[in-house]
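User: Design a sequence. Structure:
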C-alpha cells in the first residue's frame, strides 16, 4: 500500500485487493519505523479509475461473448487485471501517535514512498485510548475481538444513543445500564414501552444478576405521591407546562397554597380543591384551577393517604450496592406521563442538591415525548452539576436540540439512511460530516459508531454483543409463526 495524496485531513491510499482487507471504520497505521505514525480511519473503499478503463472492460466483455482463444505469450493480461482491480482507500487522519501518546491536530506526514502501512489491531487501539477507570464493560467486538469501555466514562457525562428503528439502540442502552448497576451505580429508567421490566430475568426465565437490584415502579399503582410531597414548584410546573394554565391562575394558586401553609393545615388534594372552591377569586380562575385539580386526582398518581405514598428517596437508597429503578410508563396517557416526569426530575434535583441521595444516572428513551423543551438545558448543565447524568436514547435525532449534541461527551450512532437525519447528525457531532455520512449510512444492524470521551476521541465501529437477559426490545409482529410450522400447515 502507498499513499496517493492528501487533502486537508484526508489521505488516499492505493492498494491491491490482497494487500489488506479493510472495512469502513477500521484503522490503518502509516509509519516510518521511528516510533511515530499516523492513525488513519477508513471511511470508504473504491476502485482506482485508470485511463481507458471503460474501453478495457468493454473489450474484455466482448472477448467473453465471442468465446475466442486469447493468446498472451508474455502473460501481460494478469498484470493488467491486477492494475484494473486496484483500490483507493479513503481515510481520515484521526491523530499522530508517538509511542503510546496521541497528538491531535499535528501536521506531521508519513513519507509517501518510505512509509509502511498496516491495519491497526485492537491492542494498539487500547494503548492509545486512555480513559480513566478500571471498571470494564464488554460492549461488543472490534475486528472479531472483544472490545471494552470503562464505566467511569459515563460518570458525570452526557451520553446520547441514536439511530433509526430496529438497529439496536435500546439493546446497547440495556448493556450500559445493567453494567453500571452491576458496578454499584444507581440508575433510573423512564420506560415508555415496558422494555426494561424483564431485566431481572435471564433468557431461560430464571433470576438474572440484576434480580435483587431492580425496583419497578408503576405510577398510579405502586408509585403514588401526596401533593405535599410534590410541593408548590412541581404543581406550578405541572399547571403551567402540562395543562397550559394562564399566569393569573397560577399566581392565585400559589397564593392559596401559601395561605394553607400559613394556617399549618395538612394538605391533601381533596382539601386543596375545597380551599379553591371557598377562596375569594374570580369564577373563571376558580373553574380553571378546580378542573385541573380534578384532572390531577383522576391521574391516580396523587393520593390523599400518606400510607400509600412512595418515597423516591427511600427507593433509591433501599439497596446499597447498585439500584435500577424502572418507571414503567407504558400504560400512562401522555399528560400523566408528563406529570410523573415533572415530579421525578424536580424531586431528584432537590434530593441531589441536599445530598440525600448519591449521584445517579438517568436513562430516558424518546425523551422529547415527555420532557418539556425548557428542561433540556437544565438537565445537561445545572442538574448535571448536582449529580444527575443523563443518557438519552432516540430514533429522531432532531428531537434533541442541536445545542445538547454539542455538549454530549459520548455519542453512540447506529444506522441512518435518511439524508436529513445524516445532515443533522453531521452538523451536531464531534467529527467531520464526511465520516459520519459515509460510515453511519452503511452500518449493519447492531453495529455502532462510538464517538467521544468513552473511546478517547478515537471514533470506533463496534459490533454490539448479545445479552443473557430478557431485553424485550423486539417488536411484536402479527405474522410471527415459525417457517417450519408454516410449511407443516401448508402440507
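Assistant: Done.
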Amino acid at each position: 500500500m502507498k499513499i496517493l495524496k492528501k487533502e486537508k485531513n484526508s489521505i488516499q491510499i492505493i492498494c491491491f485487493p490482497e494487500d489488506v482487507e479493510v472495512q469502513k471504520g477500521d484503522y490503518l497505521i502509516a509509519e516510518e519505523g521511528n516510533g511515530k505514525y499516523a492513525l488513519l480511519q477508513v471511511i470508504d473503499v473504491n476502485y482506482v479509475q485508470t485511463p481507458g478503463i471503460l474501453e478495457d472492460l468493454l473489450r474484455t466483455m466482448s472477448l467473453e461473448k465471442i468465446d475466442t482463444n486469447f493468446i498472451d505469450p508474455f502473460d501481460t493480461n494478469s498484470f493488467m487485471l491486477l492494475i484494473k482491480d486496484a483500490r483507493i482507500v479513503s481515510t481520515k487522519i484521526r491523530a499522530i501517535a508517538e509511542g503510546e501518546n496521541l497528538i491531535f491536530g499535528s501536521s506531521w506526514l508519513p513519507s509517501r514512498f518510505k512509509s509502511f502501512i498496516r491495519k491497526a489491531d485492537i491492542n494498539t487501539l487500547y494503548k492509545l485510548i486512555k480513559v480513566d477507570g478500571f471498571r470494564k464493560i464488554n460492549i461488543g467486538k472490534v475486528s472479531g475481538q472483544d472490545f471494552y469501555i470503562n464505566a467511569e466514562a459515563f460518570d458525570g457525562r452526557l451520553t446520547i444513543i441514536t439511530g433509526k428503528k430496529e438497529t439496536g439502540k435500546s439493546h446497547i442502552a440495556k448493556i450500559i445500564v445493567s453494567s453500571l448497576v452491576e458496578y454499584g451505580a444507581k440508575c433510573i429508567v423512564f420506560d415508555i414501552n415496558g422494555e426494561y421490566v424483564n431485566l431481572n430475568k435471564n433468557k431461560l426465565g430464571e433470576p438474572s444478576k440484576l434480580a435483587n437490584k431492580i425496583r419497578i415502579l408503576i405510577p398510579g399503582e405502586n408509585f403514588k405521591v401526596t401533593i405535599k410531597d410534590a410541593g408548590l414548584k412541581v404543581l406550578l410546573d405541572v399547571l403551567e407546562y402540562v395543562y397550559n394554565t394562564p399566569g393569573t391562575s397560577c399566581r392565585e394558586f400559589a397564593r392559596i397554597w401559601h395561605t394553607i401553609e400559613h394556617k399549618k393545615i395538612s394538605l391533601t388534594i381533596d382539601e386543596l380543591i375545597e380551599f379553591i372552591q371557598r377562596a375569594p377569586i374570580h369564577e373563571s380562575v376558580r373553574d380553571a384551577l378546580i378542573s385541573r385539580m380534578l384532572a390531577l386526582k383522576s391521574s391516580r398518581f396523587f393520593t390523599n393517604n400518606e400510607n400509600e405514598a412512595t418515597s423516591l428517596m427511600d427507593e433509591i437508597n433501599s439497596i446499597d450496592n447498585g439500584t435500577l429503578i424502572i418507571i414503567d410508563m407504558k400504560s400512562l396517557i401522555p399528560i400523566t406521563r408528563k406529570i410523573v416526569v415533572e415530579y421525578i426530575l424536580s424531586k431528584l434535583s432537590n434530593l441531589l442538591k441536599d445530598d440525600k441521595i448519591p449521584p445517579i444516572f438517568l436513562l430516558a428513551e424518546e425523551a422529547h415525548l415527555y420532557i418539556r423543551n425548557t428542561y433540556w438545558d437544565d438537565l445537561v448543565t445545572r442538574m448535571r452539576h448536582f449529580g444527575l447524568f443523563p443518557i438519552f436514547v432516540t430514533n429522531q435525532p432532531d428531537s434533541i436540540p442541536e445545542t445538547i449534541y454539542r455538549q454530549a461527551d459520548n455519542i453512540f450512532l447506529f444506522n441512518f439512511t435518511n439524508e436529513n437525519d445524516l445532515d443533522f447528525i453531521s452538523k451536531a457531532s464531534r467529527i467531520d460530516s464526511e465520516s459520519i455520512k459515509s460510515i453511519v449510512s452503511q452500518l449493519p444492524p447492531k453495529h455502532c459508531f462510538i464517538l467521544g470521551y468513552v473511546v478517547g476521541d478515537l471514533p470506533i465501529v463496534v459490533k454490539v454483543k448479545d445479552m443473557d437477559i430478557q431485553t424485550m426490545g423486539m417488536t411484536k409482529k402479527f405474522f410471527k409463526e415459525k417457517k417450519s410450522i408454516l410449511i407443516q400447515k401448508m402440507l
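The chain has a mean pLDDT of 86. Residues 397 and 421 are 7 Å apart (CA to CA).
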